[in-house]
Amino acid sequence: MEENAASRESGINGAVMFTDEEVKEMSGFSICEHHVEITCGCTSHQYGDAVGTLRVFPNGDLEITCDCTPGCQEDKLTPAAFEKHSGRETARKWKNNIWIIANGEKVPVGKTVLLKYYNKTTKYGNGRSQNVRVGHRDEFVRCTVCGKMRRFRLRNKEECQVYHNALKDAKWKCSDTPYEKVACEDEEERASRRVYRGCSRSQTCKGCTSCVCFGCEICRFSDCGCQICSDFIENAKN
User: Are 78 and 62 in contact, with CB atoms under 8 Å apart?
Assistant: First the structure.
């Protein structure tokens, strides 16, 4: 299984996330290098049990690969998305509806130790919501005149719009930056500084689920005719 290990590590590996005592009664539990896995499921009164594999990461992330039917391609689902995919009638209560097997019985994942890291990151605001994108990392655009890389901070919709416009402009240059005076004569950021891109989880993050966004209402625009925005707005309507 391909793993973005650099973006997942928190100084804790899978072997030390839980004690043997905490997980000894859990069926289908296994330890991987940077996370742990366990068989999980969600029950629909209409469709029966949808079974999957829950991956728990030390940074609080939860991902589920669905095995509800042979050949199901659903992977890296959030718990809420897996709950919905299973056809569960009373959705939006995934902590109660998604279960694991312990002592031969179905136990809600919310009543297990498996959410220890998820609850911790939620409590202290260092993790991500399972449904809401919490931020965007800084991005860079190269000047077509001097060739220097210029940083764009994407903290709100206005800043995202500025970056999006620069990215579309095939002739963008330093002096086009609207919110600060930048000239081609100004020094470029050192490469050692460019590795810091504003991720709330890790200063030197190389791209994780907290700071990389593939489309949201903050960085996609209904009045933009580019393919990226058009596809996002169209999919959001469905």
Answer: yes
